[in-house]
Amino acid sequence: KQRVFREPIHATEDVGKSSLGGATPKKYGFFSASPGAPTSARRSTVNRSVIATPQGPDESSGGRNEIFVDVVEKLNVTFASDGSQVSSEIDGSIQVRNFLHDRPSIKLALNEELAIGGRDLGAFGGPGRYQGYSAGGGTAVLLDDCNFHESADLSRFDVDRTISMTPPAGEFALMNYRAAGDLNPPPFRVQTVIDDGTPYRLQVTLMLKAEFPARNTCTGLQVKFPVPRNCVNAHPTLEQGSAGSGQQHAAYTQADRAVLWQFKKVKGQGEHVLTINVSFPDEASARASKKECGPATLSFTIPTYNASRLQVRYLQIGGGPTGAPDGIAPG
Question: Would residue 152 be called left, alpha or beta, if left means φ above 0 and alpha means ψ between -120 and 50 degrees?
């Protein structure tokens, strides 16, 4: 399964003076860390995800005063050997890790042009304009279905796509959703070519293209490619110039009967090739086992990118003395 993560929205408490002078009430501002924290501390805090392991006793015991919100998605995509999509499905959720003190209320806004199932299709111009979650340029984002946490107030959701709630402490799923259809483009595209022209051997060529934007970087990419169980051995060869760089590694595991191709980092729009020579005890076995190769499965993380394009436009925490919001963070 593939995993795509969006950068967290992060809020911390700020108690201090307003720009107009005089003491201000308790305020939840949006910073990398507390206002007096060193720059390095702020950077490391804002980059942490809601799915990350707690960093120390302060976070797990409630000493911090912050909230993290992530859009987390798992993708199931099937490609034909030529790289075209056969099917795709997104299983996503909005995950919240809440360490705010005094249980303030929050308000979270999603895409304005968000359609859920068939009931919202007419609001965005009908099928002629609507392109589902693969669309860009202002067209709607389509979710087939979704459900929300029991504490979510959805009284304004159909009007302006906002959700209000008093979040419970700890980690929970604010929203779960599912979407199916062609990803355009998918985060990665995989093409497989199998050559059986050499006796006792199959030569498999995996061509991997990163379709996500060049400004994004994928980390921890693993490509697993099963080989026929009756093969004698499988020898993967990396593309020229990458073997000594330390950025890629490929190895055959006999116990799993699979080749594992690993990357430390992959830049968007990059292309990579792996060649696998699979040996067999006889020529007949090689020809008969051609259809047993694959399919390739990918596991990866891409921060600040999600395939469905569901976005948190802003997160508002609490309210000031006159009812004005204390702090708003853009999505």
Answer: beta
Cα dihedral across residues 205, 206, 211, 217: positive or negative: negative
Q: Which residue do the tokens 């120390």 mark?
A: 56
Is the model's pTM score more than 0.90? no
Tokens 């307003």, residue?
A: 18
Burial class, 133, CB count within 10 angstroms (exposed 0-12 / middle 13-18 / buried 19+) = buried
Q: How many CA atoms lie within 13 A of 62 on its CB side?
A: 7
The length of the chain in residues reads: 331
Residue type, 145: D
Note whether 91 and 76 are within 8 A (CB).
Answer: yes
pLDDT digits 0-9 by tens, 57-113: 444 445 789 999 999 999 998 888 888 888 899 999 999 999 999 999 999 999 999
Classify residue 244 as exposed, middle or buried by CB count within 10 Å of its CB (0-12, 13-18, 19+): exposed
Spatial distance between the Cα atoms of 67 and 13, rounded to a whole number of angstroms: 10
Residues 276-291 pLDDT 10s: 999 999 999 998 999 9
Phi, psi of 180 (to 5 degrees): -130, 145
Note whether 303 and 216 are within 8 A (CB).
Answer: yes
Helices (H), 100-202: 157-160
6 within 8 A of 71, measured Cβ to Cβ? yes
